[in-house]
Design brief:
The structure is a homodimer.
Chain A (H helix, E strand, L loop, with lengths): L1 H22 L3 E9 L8 H23 L4 H13 L20 E7 L4 E8 L5 H11 L4 E3 H10 L13 H13 L17 E6 L5 E7 L9 E2 L9 E4 L3 E7 L1 H6 L2 H12 L3 H14 L4 E7 L4 E5 L3 E7 L5 E6 L2
Parallel strand pairs in A: 3-4
Antiparallel strand pairs in A: 1-5, 1-12, 2-3, 2-6, 5-6, 8-9, 9-10, 10-11, 12-13
Helix pairs in contact in A: 2-3, 3-4, 8-9
Amino acid sequence: MMKNFLISLILLLIYSCQSTKSENNIAIVIHGGAGTILKENMTTEVESAYLNKLEEAVQTGYEILKNGGSSQSAVDETIKIMEDSPLFNAGIGAALTNEETASLDASFMEGKNLNAGAIAGSKYIKNPISAAISVMEDSPHVLLSSDGADEFAIKMGLDTVPNSYFITERRLNSVRKAKKDDMFSFEYSYINDSKYGTVGCVAIDKMGNISSGTSTGGTTNKKWGRIGDVPIIGAGTYANNDCCGISTTGWGEHFIRNVVAYDIAAQIIYNDKGIKEASINSLDKVMKTGGDGGVIGLDNKGNISMEFNTAGMYRASIDKNGNLTVKIYSD
Amino acid sequence: MMKNFLISLILLLIYSCQSTKSENNIAIVIHGGAGTILKENMTTEVESAYLNKLEEAVQTGYEILKNGGSSQSAVDETIKIMEDSPLFNAGIGAALTNEETASLDASFMEGKNLNAGAIAGSKYIKNPISAAISVMEDSPHVLLSSDGADEFAIKMGLDTVPNSYFITERRLNSVRKAKKDDMFSFEYSYINDSKYGTVGCVAIDKMGNISSGTSTGGTTNKKWGRIGDVPIIGAGTYANNDCCGISTTGWGEHFIRNVVAYDIAAQIIYNDKGIKEASINSLDKVMKTGGDGGVIGLDNKGNISMEFNTAGMYRASIDKNGNLTVKIYSD
């Protein structure tokens, strides 16, 4: 009797230690886009609005992780908060196409089994990140596009809205100005209008599972059904429990050409680099082909990285020690 | 005077040696799809038709390289021959969608500057590979999709055809059979109908420039604007003069999730692997997530690799010594 009690006590102690150890590992990092974000162009009100929304988003994901929720759920709920805010170029407030409509891209990847899902060119899905997760879970495919993506989301019973829901006055002014000058937003610096307003989130949960997600309206004035890096697994999003999770924001074409998200992972897997050094190396490659932007990520030990080669990047994180960081400009 | 003459002579000799050396480096490799290709299911006539067309395609590209043409031009012309043949799942003879239409994807990448272009979901472009090259050269984008891709191609003056041009009786029978059983082609083995009939080509020219291209009709019975790995740089196609060029064929979703084309490159860049070993490693990863298929590639020394984990892969190459190989089944 006493022996059984002692064994139970020892097992309980071992279990508690393990569970405490793995609880230390939860961490989350988000971005709300990188670009020409300068303090001198920002009002205190706008700055506060961004800082508050970033904090709300990252705290929401962290609470889910703290309560034992999955990194998938944390990434989904965190990105939805940013999609539902007109501050960011994703969901409502998305950058508009040449036709003055919203056309939304998103992707999601799960590090434990390398499952992934993505949509490109959706017109009606309220929360593109949830549709990306649904493509992963409910279809045999990874990437669905345009009308087909909307049709799939409607079939799956996801929330849909008229395209006008996404359109804000600020973005309408931006695209009209860009059309007048026949420029794409990445060729075109516009005060207070983040050049690359993608949103993204990477999280690691108590089970050590990493998930990454990214969502965007793409570039202002985009034409010809242009697809950027966001729905491209390996370019805009990557997750693998063996190394890390990554979400990018920037001049999408250069992030595709440099396969940025997976290039960071490959440096960790094959070359034993740390996530920060690998991120800096990949951004250097982006700069060499003429692009710029930023990347966020965390490795499977919960180490966080937030790097960019633009003036600023909306970003926030809560690290494995529970420390909150919310920043806009370069340090 | 004599001294100047001697210096000139030495410089001329050095130049000649270099130019001879680099001329030895030209090489080309192609695939016409991998899958359940078994000798017992093949007639002699069909087998000859494939072998002849593969040889014609690879010889065409090699002649261009031998005459000092660019690897871009070699890849373009070689793939066009396969697109224009109903034998392969690309251009005419493409696998058909759930709507019994052709929906074409292609991508191209240039190793000297990491430029890339791709189209997804085109209905009217006669030669998708040329459209991918045009996206790279004539637009600020990498990937254009659906109606937008067609609109761009028409604007650029590329050859367009009615969608019915692409449709063959063989593919119509396949999709109708698949629809009846509600299966996608990769879940569905069909005698004499290559599961993954993508075509691809990688070449290195006298200048040492590597180019890669891939073209496909996607999977039989595809729905919801599904995009596979072919138009995804890093998954279906990759080229970088620092290491190699790659084109893949197989269950596209698994090639996206494993970022196959760039994973092979990354092993060469970061882990000093040879192209054959790196290709085998990446295909092992594809198998681990439940997929299969093949990859072709060559490194910047002109070493060729043609690997697959299916029963067969239509493939051909002419190596740096001028040796021709044309094969269908496993060795």
